[in-house]
Amino acid sequence: MRIRFYQTPGGRSPVEDFLLGLPEATRLEVADALLLLESGHALEMPLSRNLAGIRPGLHELRFRDKAGQVRVVYYLKKGDALYLVHAFRKKTQTIPRRELDIIHKRLKEI
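RE: above sequence
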């Protein structure tokens, strides 16, 4: 499955920008997980969590580094591609409302 980064109308990729700002070890973990997804592997907990309660086809990759938890939210669009729609540092048990709003907005644009 082809992986695509969400892009703003101006062509910028906030997800890619976020990932480039991560420590190298965390970036390599993200890259490994994306290679597995691209080759068709179904990832499960603790690496990937299904977020179908928010929207069917939505998932999050879960990583931890010295600064805390990192989440990369992706959407499987059947017959098209896997879209990386959002990435953020998670500091609470639940996904904060602000992050959910960003995810919903970007899903509408895909």
